[in-house]
Amino acid sequence: MWAALAKIILRNRFILLTAIILLTVFMGYKASKVSIAYSWTQVLPSDDSANIEYENFKKQFGQDGTVMVVGMQTDALFSNVSEFNDWYDLTRAVKNSSGIQDVVSAASIYKLVKNDSLNKFQFLPLLQHKPVNQHELDSVKKVVYSLPFYDGFILNKKTGATLMAITFNEKAVNSPRRVAIVDSLRNKIDAFSKKYNVDMHYSGMPYIRTVISRKIMNEMKLFLVLAALITGIILSLFFRSLFPVIFPLIIVMMGVVWALASLTLFGFQVTVLTVIIPPLIIVIGVPNSILLLNKYHTEYSKHQNKMRALSTTIRKIGVSLFLANVTTAIGFAVFCFTHSQVLFEFGLIASLNVMSTYIISLILIPIIFSLLPSPKVKHMRHLERKNTVSILSWVDRHTQQNRKTIYVIAAILVIISAYGITRIEAIGYVVDDLPKSDPVYADMRYFESRFGGVLPFEVKIDTRKPNGVFANEGKTLYKLERLEKLLRQYPIFSHPLSVLEGIKYANQAYHDGESKYFILPTLNDLQSISQFAQEAKQKQSLFKSFIDSTKQFTRVDIQMADIGSIKMKQVLAELIPRADSIFNYSAATKSWAPDSTRYKVSFTGSCLIFLRGNDFLVSNLIESVILAVVLIALIMFLLFMSLRMVIIATLPSLIPLMITLGLMGFFNIHLKPSTILIFSIAFGISSDGTMYFLTKYKQELKRLPKMTISEVVSLAIRETGVSMIYTAIILSFGFMIFAFSGFGGTKALGILISVTLLLAYCSNLILLPSFMLAMEQRQLKKSLSEEGLIELDDNDDEEDDIP
After folding, report:
1. pTM score, whole prediction
2. Which stretches does DSSP call E strand in 512-588?
């Protein structure tokens, strides 16, 4: 098969070259259409109960997470007429901006007043015009501070902090327009900040998502440049020749174009995960060219026949690279089985393009170098570089003579790592990927300390019957008040907003604005207040955000701090039974309500969905790692038809994963989706080294059956060692570029994969030969000499009549 493939490639060079160039031009056109994802990425599967609950919530009350908040800490707002008036103008300018649904600030407060002549409540703006002097501003401050409804929502009386709550419409918040809108708002607000020398703090999900979207695109460009630069430098240091540097980089850049085009062709968008695929293609794709060129130079140095050397390269390295790229692709493809859309997209695009880049490399490297002049002696000196030869000689000597020492060192590392693994915690945060020094993180902490938080958290109450919110003489409202008192016991939550707050505000208005009446009214007062809000439109305007059209469902809207998935589980474990007892347990009768009349209390919101998705991904990704190990072990079994060889081939790649897990435990790196990605990816890539070594070993054993196990191992170390060292350096430095990421998860992924792959290639070069030498030679020789189900073409001496 591989001999036939070599003939096809080398005899149809110009046709294949033209076809790939034309296809790449088409892919380039498609790649230019790639877009970034602006909507909230769905992690949980559509049939997950939490996701179903959240989708039902959005249908009833609209999407949460549409509010951007802008805060400042200043005492001058109500003591400087000019500053307050500019804040008033800024509020109006923001309100009139495209894509903005509503704005609330201290300068745009509406006051609820009782109109006795019309027998109804009216919402009237507190300010009919801007205050002209300090006396008027003092009056405004007095009224604002007399309205408890806004305390903890728009201002904090204790700290003097105030904020502007900007609500985006749903179409704008999930579209590319959001970036331009946020930029425009920042320009307006920053001008105010600069004029009055006050620090402004920005947060809220629209703002956080915008910052992350921009970082994603900027980092993709940065990683592409860094990946190309680092691999180019390393290639030039290895080969000391222009062509072996330029053409591999051109080929992997073609792979990048194909990867971006495939996103468009599949209808996917760039996310925080798919953004790393283009630089991954560069880092993973370059080793294909390295192995092909090393084999080409090795073969050419033997007989000085360029076409024969290229043909042998395709036949001998093609199969090794095929198996290596398949194992790498499996490391990505297993994410397709996680039932998560974002991971499915990442796994599918990455795995397909790993293989497409392999195909491009296998075709173009032989074709391009068949058209270039034959390599000179100086171009092949890298094969005999003293440092490389010394390293391989050291490896060969120690694997032959000091295997027990190698086993002891490996065992000690595994034991130490096992202890480190026990220290690992699985925990995730909503803005976990942003460093603590990032302004977004610092601003979020600002709002948490003054307003409780900015992340959406929702409580939905199903009364089980129409008009259940107001029926039974306000029974639900009194239960709702107890729930809010419970929620206020948790400092992680902000001031709750619900229909209850509206009723309290109405009670205050009914009693001529006296703040002491901002309480749940008595039953008689509730009936009187209801008469003032009896008109449907008026009642709807009071409560439309908190009650559905049937008045069966109501909600409590809260903003919360980013406390992480572990603490959130603990909070929910306390809240759920306590909330259930408030609505369904009678202290008087000491009994629970019948199932048919029980209230259903649900906790939801995009914050909870994110944290639930984090746990979902962790559990699914653990399964993916296991699946990757099983699939790659199966390929090795098909190659060697020996369970013994599967164990030998798998251990050198598994031990580095254990060491990396141990390092995560010792350095307090949490187990989360971004770090769990490491293991299936790293195992797939590190298995490449196993494939390089074992396929070469098996080919040489069949070609030279009279050689001893020891001699064949030494030959395999010399033949594959150079390429494995080059590949290890390329991969290690290549993945290290992600250490420059502004996302903590991406940074950890880069550093940990870099360390893991370096350890894995060392393991495959030292531990794998040691295991093979330690086995009983007759059994090993027998198992490796038998044909597997995967063909290894080894007609080394065949001379092709390729023109």
Report:
1. 0.79
2. 553-560, 585-586
